[in-house]
Amino acid sequence: MNTKHKIMSVSGKASRINTDDAGDIKPGKRDNTWKATWKDGIEYEGEWVDNLPHGNGICQYSNGDIYDGEWKDGERHGMGKCTTKNGTVYDGEWFKGQACGKGIYNYLKGNIYSGEWKKSKNHGRGIMTYANGDVYDGEWKKGKNHG
Fold first, then answer.
1. What is the enclosing helix (H) or strand (E) of 62?
2. What are the φ and ψ backbone dihedral angles of 28, each rounded to 5 degrees?
3. 3-class SS letters over 119-141
4. Which residues pair with 80 in a beta bridge?
5. Where are the alpha helices (H) located in 19-119, listed in sequence order?
C-alpha cells in the first residue's frame, strides 16, 4: 500500500491520500466534486485542490472505515466523523489527520468520552461515561485520566 494514503484511524498517525495511484477518477454526484477509487479499495468523493482531497469529502477505506468531513491537503482537518468497521465513532475536530480539539468518541463496549483531544488521545478536560454507569469528569493526559 502506498504510504501516502494509509488507513487512518482516530488512534493512528496522521496519513494522507492523493491521486498518484488512483485507478479511476470521475465527476462526483455533487457539483464541483470528484470521485476517486484506488487499486487497494479506498474510495474518496469530495472536493479536491492540487490533486489532494481538500474541502468536504467522504472516504471509505478498504478496511471498512468511513470518514465524512473536512479535508486539508489530503488529511482529515476541521470537523469530521470517523466510523470504524467495528462500530466505534469519533465525531469532532481533526488537525493534520488526528483527533485534536473537542470531540465525542463512542467506544465499542458502550463507553462514551466527550471532551478535548490531542494527537488522537483524550487529553485535557473531558467526561468519560462508562457502560456500567460510572462517570469520570476531569482532566486527561495522553489517553488516561489525570487528576
1. none
2. -85, -175
3. CCEEEEEEEEECCCCCEEEEEEE
4. 69, 92
5. none
The grid cell for 87 is 462500530
Candidates 77, 97, 34, 85; CA nearest to 61 is: 85
Give the tens place of pLDDT for each residue, 47-83.
Answer: 888 778 889 999 999 899 999 999 998 899 999 999 9
Q: Give the integer Cα–Cα distance in Å for 93 and 1.
A: 27
From residue 22, alpha-carbon distances to 1, 11, 17, 51, 119 in Å are: 12, 26, 10, 11, 28
Residue with cell 474541502: 55
DSSP string, 101-112: EEEEEE-TTS-E
Residue-wise pLDDT tens digits, 10-49 = 333 334 454 555 555 565 555 567 888 877 888 888 988 8
- Distance between CA atoms of residues 118 and 121, nearest Å: 5
**144: Cβ contacts below 8 Å, ≥ 6 apart:** none
